[in-house]
Amino acid sequence: MPATIRDVARASGVHISTVSRAFSAPQLVNPETRSKVLETAEKLGYRPNRAARALITGRTHNIGLIVADIANPFFPPLIKAAEREARHRDYHVFVADSNEDPAVEEELVRALAKQVDGILLVSPRLANSIIEGLSREAALVVVNRQVPGLPSVVMDVSQGARSAIEHLAELGHRSIGYLGGPRGSWTNREIRRAATAAARTLGGPGDPVEVTALGPNAPTGDGGLIAAEQVHRAGFTAVLAYNDLMAIGLIEGLATLGVRVPQDVSVVGIDDIALSRLTRPGLTTVANPTAAAGRAAVDMLLQHGDDRRTTGQITLATELVIRDSTGPGPQGNADPG
Amino acid sequence: MPATIRDVARASGVHISTVSRAFSAPQLVNPETRSKVLETAEKLGYRPNRAARALITGRTHNIGLIVADIANPFFPPLIKAAEREARHRDYHVFVADSNEDPAVEEELVRALAKQVDGILLVSPRLANSIIEGLSREAALVVVNRQVPGLPSVVMDVSQGARSAIEHLAELGHRSIGYLGGPRGSWTNREIRRAATAAARTLGGPGDPVEVTALGPNAPTGDGGLIAAEQVHRAGFTAVLAYNDLMAIGLIEGLATLGVRVPQDVSVVGIDDIALSRLTRPGLTTVANPTAAAGRAAVDMLLQHGDDRRTTGQITLATELVIRDSTGPGPQGNADPG
DNA sequence: CTGAAAGCGCTAACAT
DNA sequence: ATGTTAGCGCTTTCAG
């Protein structure tokens, strides 16, 4: 049986409200009384019960973090950074995994809403209208997506996709595939759009750069592996993948088909997960500042306190990291068979 | 302002205790009354406030999960499985990252203790005596370690290490290095001990198998990378690493030194993280059932309710997965068992 | 600066 | 089967 505020009050000879103040409003209590109280509290191993405190203050000092798939290496650095940032502000984090299922995602928000001061929705698969509805049940910050009227943190995938296509075009590639991710992904749409748009501004007259989209695919190594044959048949000389996992799976699949990377086909990923510098060939990829995004999201959530309709949008820069999976394209050949 | 039990009571014309029972003791209430209550509750979007409930029942329906490093790919599958299992039992999970720091770990247990019904301590770096002390503040289940008197879930790393050494010995390796993990790791000690013991039972008379331990090292890709030169100088023909990450880092480091795997040196990892079948060469490794461990740990924690001194110990089998990072040793024995 | 009293939302005896 | 009452541990007026 843990010590309660009453035990501390009795042991230090003051009223419970004084003990309460010693913890939550130090300036309202005599320094001597305060230190005496804190000392007894320490001795008894007393810690204020947050549930009781929450009941009256309305603030739980907890936040929720909902991700599509904890096991996808994109998320852990973000989770880690968010948890760390939250803890430094004396918040605890509920982590929940929707398993890529929008319905589960929605239910998780509802289930967590009462227990937290706000929820971070990372890479949500939900429709905008539903997210807007949910934002009335809990303060929401959306990561990796933009929803009108809601605070969000995104990484600049458009710019990243553009850099990737520019890099490939400079290497001489003219027929580029975009290996798309899951249906309903905001990021997927942004990448496709930006990559296609970038292609139009590149290449000379009579020497167009073409980007062709494939998908949807599962955003996993297997998703890339399975797509290898399709990529091979399509005859692209370079491929941009929705994420690193798919890119690595693709490279693996291509190897099985006797296609070498980067000699025969160049491959670019997105994310720069830890793994990407450990594979061979090292993966050329668009680095996403996931840890910074996690911190920024917690920041936004906690900064604005109770005011749920902040519309702040943060965009974090991405950066192309060139490793060994990209190389020169076919010279003087705009459209290889 | 979310609906409270009082709103539901008023709207459905019953007393609040009836509403309470409709949710937490359905058999005590008239089915018709119950369905009417649930209907109004649904309409008002009412959800019982868990903090208020916890205050009186003493059960929060939350559990804590403390890991050394969320970003280490060993943990996410375990976290994911534990969270899923917990949610199916209507529990939410606080995830916290100790950053490999025992002091942080201890503080996390203390901070979480009041808010949860129990805590899963995964790969704890804390001394036994401290863990035992903490077990008085919260129900604890220890994963990846055994602590006298506490329930625990471990994967059979001893058997795994033995299989690995046997595999290498059969391939003809006689001088094997063990690339150790972090200081204070229970798993590290177990592996070292089992590998050394296995070596003694192998090899013929006048043909001993030797296992030499190196370390401690950081349990990361960099840890393995940095150790490559030391491994090379020591002249081992095969190496068992504390985990896959280190094994992959080691392979990378050896490649830099012009040492080929498996032609010049064989490497075996432990864990079978997702990454290990995506690298080249594919990593031979001891597969750890991390997801099963996560589920089992939640199971143990919730099964025993309030009785904190269960001493159940679960050991989950491991399995050697042979891929391409191991090959014949200097004796040229190409075809094992 | 400290104490007294009320009450957050809910459950658990105890009545009826 | 339902209502009444007390109170979980804490914060927050309001007095003094």
From TrEMBL, chains A, B:
- One Gene Ontology MF term: DNA binding
Q: Which Gene3D superfamilies match?
A: 3.40.50.2300, lambda repressor-like DNA-binding domains (1.10.260.40)
Q: Does the keyword Transcription regulation apply?
A: yes
Ranges for domain HTH lacI-type come to 3-57
InterPro entries, per this entry? Answer: HTH_LacI, LacI/GalR-like_sensor, Lambda_DNA-bd_dom_sf, Peripla_BP_I
Which UniProt keywords are listed? Answer: DNA-binding, Transcription, Transcription regulation
Report what the protein is called: LacI family DNA-binding transcriptional regulator
The organism named in the record is: Hamadaea flava
